[in-house]
Amino acid sequence: MTFFRNPFTSNNFMLIVGDIVIAFISVYASLFLRFFNMQSIQAQKYFPLLPKAVAFSLIVGFICFFMELYNTEKRDGRKEIILKILLSGLLTAAALAAIYYFIPFIQIGRGLLFMALCITVLLQIIWHMGYDVFMKLPGGGKKVLILGTGPVAKTMGNLLYSNHNGFALSGYINCVGEPISVPSESVIGNGDSVLAIALKEKVQKIVVSLTERRGTFPVREILSCKLRGIDVIDGPSFYEQLTGKLLIENMNPSHVIFSEGFRITAFRRFLKRIVDVLFAGIGIVLSLPFLPVVPVLIKLDSRGPVLFRQRRVGEGEKCFTLYKFRTMIDGAEKETGPVWSQTGDSRITKLGGFLRKTRIDEIPQLFNVIRGDMSFIGPRPERPFFVASLKKHIPYYSERHCLKPGITGWAQVRFEYGDSIEDVIEKMKYDLYYIKYQSIFIDLLIVLDTIKVILFGRGAR
After folding, report:
1. Nearest 5 degrees, angle CA 94-CA 95-CA 98?
2. Strands, E, within 104-219: which ranges?
3. How do strand 142-147 and strand 167-174 relate by DSSP bridges?
4. Whole-angstrom Cα distance, residue 206 to residue 223?
5. Cβ(335)–Cβ(354) under 8 Å?
6. What's the CA gap between 222 and 148, in Å, rounded?
7. pLDDT value at position 417?
8. Where do runs of H (alpha helix) occur along 234-383?
9. What are the residue boundaries of the structural domains of the chain, listed by start?
């Protein structure tokens, strides 16, 4: 089952399924409203309707994904959501017009398409507005009880306060010897009465977030809660579900060793290599129009070589030469030595800024993938100088080298460009999450997110 592990939270998934179902129903509703009698000769010319409705609903879901309607971590206001739904409707119409030209079998006709889109947009607005209202109600989200009052519990509580994820914090439970790092007014009991408090507060989930479990963990109380049907989960796992990254500050070796994830089998490596070559081959074919033009523009823009070569650390901490189109002035680090690129970096050429925004500068890395130095999807390769330094400051940093580095990855699409130790730690959390839960589904999501990042020019410097 981990092969197709779903990185979405239940609320992300609920919004997506809701939109797809709405779009599917809208096709049948529009046909009924237009002809009333589904058995009429005019209505039957649209049959078989099922494949057309399926195609329509999937395209709607796909476009809405690109418009970030399902980003529950950064949920927009009502006006922004309505605007995104309206824009999604327009983009869906444009996308379907192009698709119908190549696949006429799934075409449903202009009149019916217009009605279906109008019904879909209207129902989507009602659905998304209703979802937000429901989640803000006192009983709308699942009630969560946090076992613990220390730093880990505080992290879980802050996450619930800041994240629109369908959960509502009921309070904290203090255990013997546990420090109190949370607001005292939010502590509603102790470890001897967990079941009574859980039943009184009508909680659906208990998050175990103790700083030290030895001698403090109320086994009998938590077991009783479990047998009463209350979901019990440890803090790090809850954190992973909500954020799509690992809580490495409180992660110990046993979490890696005994976890269901972090399984890199020979079959998975073989399958990933096939996918890498396939994606890299498609990428090279699609980039053929740029290959003769970009080198000429680089030469006209600034002096220096067309290709930029740099040593990077790959799988097993073995170094390889990474290739990119040059985006900085020649000899950019001659005086400063290795440094991270900053916002508004003066070393970047005028053309280089455009190449970075559009990710055209990374096209030569496709040949790194073909050679086997890199994967299409994986942790971003770092320079040996930075790796040596980061290994001293960040726990488990070396573990990211158990896979081939990638052109794109979970950290790249979920977090902006990093230029500090703190940023690298955040990206590291995403990298380890990908290593732990890597699957075809996450790889597909990363590819889709990468397309979105390129289209909107995000994250580049």
Report:
1. 90
2. 142-147, 167-174, 187-190, 205-208
3. parallel
4. 11
5. no
6. 13
7. 66
8. 235-243, 253-257, 266-287, 293-301, 350-358, 365-371
9. 2-136, 142-243, 266-456
Gap between the Cα atoms of 167 and 448, Å rounded: 28
Q: How far is CA 435 from the centre of its chain?
A: 14
Q: Which residues of the chain have pLDDT under 70?
A: 1-11, 36-46, 71-77, 135-141, 163-165, 215, 254-255, 258, 260, 335-337, 340, 342-344, 417-419, 456-461
pLDDT score, position 79: 81
Scan for tokens 């009698």, then name that residue: 37
* Contact criterion met (CB below 8 Å) for 425 and 378: no
Distance of CA 287 to the CA centre of its chain: 26
Q: Find how far residue 416's CA is from the centre of its chain.
A: 12
Classify residue 403 by its DSSP letter.
S
Q: Dig out the tokens for 317 from the structure.
A: 């901490």
Give me the residues paired with residue 309 across strands.
323
**Token digits for 356?**
């970075």
- The fold for domain 142-243 equals Rossmann fold (3.40.50)
DSSP output for 315-354 = GGG-EEEEEEE--B-TTTTTTT-S----TT-TTB-HHHHH
Beta strand 142-147 pairing with 205-208: parallel
The whole-model pTM stands at 0.76
Q: What angle do CA 377, 437, 440 make, to 5 degrees?
A: 55
pLDDT in tens, 53-111: 999 999 999 898 888 788 655 556 678 888 889 989 999 999 999 998 888 888 888 88
